[in-house]
Amino acid sequence: MLHYFEAARVGSWIGWIFNFGFGSVLFGVLSIERTIIVLFAFFLSTASVFVLNQYFDREEDQKNEIKSKLPVASGRITPRMTLIYFFSLVILSLILVCIANINVLSLFIIYLGLSIAYSTPPLRLKSVPIVDFIVSGIGAGFLPFIMGSGLSNKLISNIPTIILSAVPLILIHCGSHIFQAIGDYEVDRKNGVRTFVVKYGKKKGVIVAGFLFLITCFLPLIYIALRIISYIHLFIYCILFPLLIPIITRYVALIKNPSTEMIIELNKTARKYGLIALSAIWFYALIVKIVF
Predict the structure, then answer these.
(1) Which pLDDT tens digit goes with each residue over 85-102?
(2) How far is the C-alpha of 39 from the C-alpha of 107, rounded, in Å?
(3) pTM listed for this prediction
(4) CA torsion angle for 180, 183, 186, 187 (degrees, to 10)?
(5) Which residues contact 58 (CB under 8 A, 6 or more apart)?
(6) Beta strands, E only, the chain
(7) C-alpha closest to that of 266 among 134, 170, 175
(8) Which helix (H) or strand (E) holds 248?
(9) 3-state SS class at 201
């Protein structure tokens, strides 16, 4: 069972959980019990996404120093059992959604469909430059957020707020995907996986990802300047900004040396300080929702 849990790669989608949770508290939910069930269904769906990706990438992962230790690539889970595992996760996930809140079933189907198109031939969107990181941004940023928002049954009446809230999430995940692709550059290039980074180079990948994160950092200030959100929220922005300093330091080092080792160090730093920032933002949104 430990091998199957490891194959789910929970640590790789912490940000996705935040996006779902952020969306669910932003507009309020109908029932805590149903929300927990749908959240668990989201866990299962997301796990299935990573399991399927490992199935189709198993040969490439075997040549990757880090990913070669994954259960599917290392042979601890056979290809046949990987597919059974994938379909079991998907079926159970959709059953739970139908039981708890069928209103978000269509969003789950879109989420799974896009994820399958990302990993599965002949589409295999992960091998289409530019499309690869855009699809990742939508699949990891926008869809989890809107799935969580859908629990309130107020999607139609809150479209402007949803779009404004989702844009930074999409940009963050687009940039994160590019950084991940930089780490996989050598293996992807040798195996003919035409990612954005493989086509345009690691240096340009670092610059584009940095630009996306820079826009994300300035978006709250832009929203405040345009009076889209209250200046009161500048409080949480100022508190969290110092957490960016270690990440920026790692990013500057990455520009000088866009290697796999530097990507690993950047990811560790971003995960450490990013988790703190995400938790603070989530609790802040929850408190604001309760108070106001």
Answers:
(1) 999 999 999 999 999 989
(2) 13
(3) 0.89
(4) -60
(5) 72, 73, 79, 82
(6) none
(7) 175
(8) helix 244-256
(9) coil
User: Are the C-beta atoms of 100 and 166 separated by less than 8 Å?
Assistant: no
Question: 3-state DSSP: the chain helix, strand, coil percent, rounded to 5?
Answer: 85, 0, 15
Closest CA to 279 of 239, 246, 251: 239
Dist. CA 52–CA 27, nearest whole Å: 32
Structure tokens at 255: 């520009």
Closest CA to 66 of 277, 261, 286, 291: 261
Q: How far apart are CA 270 and CA 241, in angstroms?
A: 13
HSE toward the beta carbon, residue 255, CA cutoff 13 A: 10
pLDDT band at 156 (very low <50, low <70, confident <90, very high): low
- Computed over its alpha carbons, how large is the radius of gyration of the chain? 19
